[in-house]
Amino acid sequence: xxxxxxxxxxxxxxxxxxxxxxxxxxxxxxxxxxxxxxxxxxxxxxxxxxxxxxxxxxxxxxxxxxxxxxxxxxxxxxxxxxxxxxxxxxxxxxxxxxxxxxxxxxxxxxxxxxxxxxxxxxxxxxxxxxxxxxxxxxxxxxxxxxxxxxxxxxxxxxxxxxxxxxxxxxxxxxxxxxxxxxxxxxxxxxxxxxxx
Amino acid sequence: xxxxxxxxxxxxxxxxxxxxxxxxxxxxxxxxxxxxxxxxxxxxxxxxxxxxxxxxxxxxxxxxxxxxxxxxxxxxxxxxxxxxxxxxxxxxxxxxxxxxxxxxxxxxxxxxxxxxxxxxxxxxxxxxxxxxxxxxxxxxxxxxxxxxxxxxxxxxxxxxxxxxxxxxxxxxxxxxxxxxxxxxxxxxxxxxxxxx
Lengths: 196, 196
What we know:
The structure is a homodimer.
Chain A: E1 6-9, E2 22-27, H1 38-47, E3 51-58, E4 67-74, E5 78-79, E6 82-83, E7 98-104, E8 107-112, E9 118-123, E10 127-131, E11 136-141, E12 147-154, H2 162-167, E13 171-176, E14 179-184
Antiparallel strand pairs in A: 2-3, 3-4, 4-12, 5-6, 7-10, 7-12, 8-9, 8-11, 13-14
């Protein structure tokens, strides 16, 4: 079977691809245990299982040499003082990178390595971010509008969500006096332990 | 050594990355033998070795799992009826893809496989192009302004320019009655033979 080149359109303001194969929707329930303020989380959830972020994927084989790509949209909002964010993950094949292009909105990419290094890069339209191999990554929306990014990563990368679900990220992005700041995650390494 | 995440800015109208490692400039001399109208080519060259296109690269290891990325800028113009274009290439590792995001301008990506398939996709701002594994690709600027694209491809892909230098692409993009059209390349498979 011939595998043909293709194009799709990204049009403002929504930037939903004109063609896509998968649409993933993550609501509050999928983030249980991940936000620091558990009381705020439960209060929000009681009011409704809000949509936090969406991913539109183009389907490609999960093979080295292919590039998996699509659009990530993190909606604006906070759980307590902590901004809406993606689950975040390591790649299963740690030695794989990812490139992001910020199309709209304001936010941050929170990153860390298994060796204990951490980094935060701020996102704004027109900014390109390179996440080198070994860095887990989570998008955080610190602005009043959707944070929209285009992503591409190697087809064989895979996703390891479990490590982050269990240990969290070392750093959180929270609002302090109206500004987004980086703070230590006091529960790092024991996220799962406090869930039950 | 810790390999840190980084960002760079792409600002209109030029979209030159705020940070880059390599700046490649291709002038008319580097395209000898590639344009159909050899007389027009020689006349232009006699008047000056004009800059046809530029590439700004971020340096990454040439390894699977990495993503080589940067910006390509093809300037506007024609050699005879044939629009300014890049040399074009196969990846040395054929089973590697490439993703392009058109940031500015109008143009086309001319593509073909070793098996004889060909494809042309038109580029405009906001359009994303996926070049699957096995497809040689060449950017062509069909508009009055710079054609500017962001590209990313697997670190182990490599570039095979020689095959295209020798055989050309099966299709050319030329101006007919003021419009860009796809025509057969009458010299396909014998480009090098006609150089001497």
